[in-house]
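Protein 1 of 2
SEQ + STRUCT:
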Amino acid sequence: MELAKFFGLDGFDDLVQNCVALLAYERPQESSVGYLLEESQRDVVADTINAMILSTNPNMKNLQSCLHSYLEKLLRQLTTCYLERRSSNGDQGEAFHLHRVLNSGKDIKS
C-alpha cells in the first residue's frame, strides 16, 4: 500500500513497477525483472529508489528535481568548476577524478 503512491509519477512509472515487482518474487533473480539485479542495472535501480524517496519530501515543489539529490548536484557543480578552472589555465594541470579524491582522503588543493 505504501508503494502505491509512487505509481503514476511521470518518468518513473515503468521502472517503479519493475522495482516493486522484485519484491513479489521469492527468487527475484529468476523473474522477468531479474535483470534489474544485474550489476549493470544497479545504478538505475538505486537512482529510481532514491528519486522515489526524495519525492516524498513535502517541501518538494517540482517532482523532476528529485531525480538528482543535492549531493549529486553539488558533485556535478564541483566537477564543472574544476574543469572550468583547468580550461582557463590552458588545459594545464591534472583532470578532476572524484574517485581518486575520495580514495586519497586528502583535500583538493587550489
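Protein 2 of 2
SEQ + STRUCT:
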Amino acid sequence: MAALGSPGRTLRGLLRELRYLNAATGRPYRDTAAYRYLMKAFRAHRVTSEKLCRAQHELHFQAATYLCLLRSVREHLALHQEFHGKGERSVEESAGLVGLQLPSQPGGKGWEP
C-alpha cells in the first residue's frame, strides 16, 4: 500500500476540491454541509496522544480515497470539455487540431477563381 501522507495534507486537498466545486455557484465553501462534515470528522478522529488510533487511520484512508475520486472527476470533466466531439468538423478545423494549415489559395497552372 502506498503511503498516504499526513492527514492535514489530505484535509487541505479535500478543502481545495470543495473550493473548485463551489467556485461555479459563488457561495463560500465554508457554508456547505460537506465542509462542516469534514471538519467535524477530522476533529473527532484527531490523535491526542502517542497511541495507535485505528479509527483515525481508517478515516484518513477513506478521505484520501475520496480526494482521489474528486480530483479524478474534476480532471475527467476538464478533459471531456476539451476533447469532446462537436459533430462534423470542417477540413480547416480538422487540420488545425493536428497542427497543420491549409494553403490559403492553391497555386499553379489551371487554377481559375
